[in-house]
Amino acid sequence: MASISIPDPVPPATEDAENIRKAVQGWGTDEKALIEILGHRTAAQRAEIAVAYEGLYNETLLDRLHSELSGDFRSAMMLWTMDPAARDAKLAHKALKKKGDRHVWVLVEVACASSPDHHVAVRKAYCAAYSASLEEDVAACPLYKDPLKQFLVRLVSSYRYSGELVDDELARAEAAELHDAVVARKQTLHGDVARIVGSRSKPQLKATFERFRQEHGRAIDDVLEERRGDQLAAVLKTAVWCLACPEKHFAEVIRISIVGLGTDEESLTRAIVSRAEVDMKKVKEEYKARYRKTVTSDVNGDTSGYYNGILLTLVGPE
Amino acid sequence: MASISIPDPVPPATEDAENIRKAVQGWGTDEKALIEILGHRTAAQRAEIAVAYEGLYNETLLDRLHSELSGDFRSAMMLWTMDPAARDAKLAHKALKKKGDRHVWVLVEVACASSPDHHVAVRKAYCAAYSASLEEDVAACPLYKDPLKQFLVRLVSSYRYSGELVDDELARAEAAELHDAVVARKQTLHGDVARIVGSRSKPQLKATFERFRQEHGRAIDDVLEERRGDQLAAVLKTAVWCLACPEKHFAEVIRISIVGLGTDEESLTRAIVSRAEVDMKKVKEEYKARYRKTVTSDVNGDTSGYYNGILLTLVGPE
């Protein structure tokens, strides 16, 4: 369900590297050529190009993009060209320095919206880049207080079972526990709710949430959303979405980054770059169904130039 | 600091597999030959032998050892022959079914006494073997209550920074935090103490514990040990040892498994098998310094036969 298109046949990595070199050499930059090449290659192909480029020209591709480009276009191109695990590590590291719901989202996305193996790769990349573990930086982050902090530590430390096996009896029992805490409010959210959402596998959680909806007539994310002003409930809802239906979360991130005064380019770039190879097709469908607009038309309304160019390339045709 | 000895040159894996086959075929078993081969090979070599054996004889080496051997000798040979990550996953899974301090130790050992990358491999092996993640099984384990359970979840979920970089200022500040909680008792043990011990890198923790000792004249493990009857304090002390000086912990495990009524073969086997390729030489030195006996003499006093044979092979000469 990736949205990017790859040419067939794909040129050899050295040829791509040479064409990138031509685009960045001499006076001016051929931004279109950069989009045309990098915007139509998979993560593995971009990694090969970066290796070929460094071998040929004795400078890293990322360094060159940094010195050659600027503004939102540069951010998008660099995030896209990076290794996805290193990119997520960087996004999480940056998010830990800033206050606000949108930055908490980044941590939840990194922890919950990708595969468990990708998340382990992110944690390794984080250690390599920042000489600290992701979870120790979250645990020591002065911006968060317990119980939210405990929950975030749990999310970023997780390595969930990634098989398809689902225990229906467990789903029934844990749906009841979730109901006790979220609806009946007989328990705190930072007890069993945090444990269940923080540790169970994605297929198991989907079964549990479905059971919750069947037995209680409402979806758990709707109930959590009603707890206005409760930050833990809001983060739990984000985690539920990122785990069970990430396309809903990312459609919302894109929409929120566009509506309102000005554009939140950081969020817009992050959502599109990080989902283009994962589930952008589903994000676009969700977006259309929920907002009666297309991602493309909204991106066109709020962005321009080469920045618009790379975003639309990654979003793909509607 | 491994204690096992490897022949030079090492026979090809197929030759080892053929000799193992000879040892287990027909009437009776040549246990000595099994010890002679498997007891003198590294984990990577044992893995190659297992692959060669299965290719040649269409049965797994572990299955054959299981059907051929019995008792404590079988347990030791099977744990030794297994892939180390799968072995630790199995030990943790078993420990989660049983009550008692010695079983909590296993979880702490698995989480803290090996490298962060090995621990990730254990977590992957656990998911593959038990269709659940290690941390979700700890989090759902009915044998433990908060705050101990939260601490255990944190330990088994960790992926610590494994570089050598130490922040001295942080060590000073966190030594003071540890003092406030452990000595002055101004804070609970499940606050910053659990966070620091549960997330910081091993070199960082060693610096922090050393700072604690310098500033307060006593070692943190000694202070924690005095809190008799406080289970979290006891587990924290075990974690401190497994992180900063695992040889102390494993010397104690071996000693406790031997002294007293009967022998705790499960603990004895676990300690020797899991440390033979890691730090058994240091464990032996620590043992001699603390108990004025050698591991060999104590193992000889409490075990016999082939079980004694494999243990001494792994312990190596004193």
From TrEMBL, chains A, B:
One GO MF term: calcium ion binding
UniProt KW Signal keyword: no
Family from the record: Belongs to the annexin family.
Residue numbers binding Ca(2+) 1: 26, 28, 68, 258, 262, 302
One GO term describing the cellular component: plasma membrane
Domain-level remarks: A pair of annexin repeats may form one binding site for calcium and phospholipid.
Highest taxon, organism lineage: Eukaryota
Record: residues binding Ca(2+) 3: 303
Identification of the protein by name: Annexin
Keyword Endoplasmic reticulum: no
Gene3D superfamilies: Annexin
InterPro entries: Annexin, Annexin_repeat, Annexin_repeat_CS, Annexin_sf, AnnexinD_plant
GO annotation, biological process: response to cold; response to heat; response to salt stress; response to water deprivation
PROSITE patterns named in the record: ANNEXIN_1, ANNEXIN_2
Organism: Panicum virgatum
Keywords, comma-separated and alphabetical: Annexin, Calcium, Calcium/phospholipid-binding, Metal-binding, Repeat
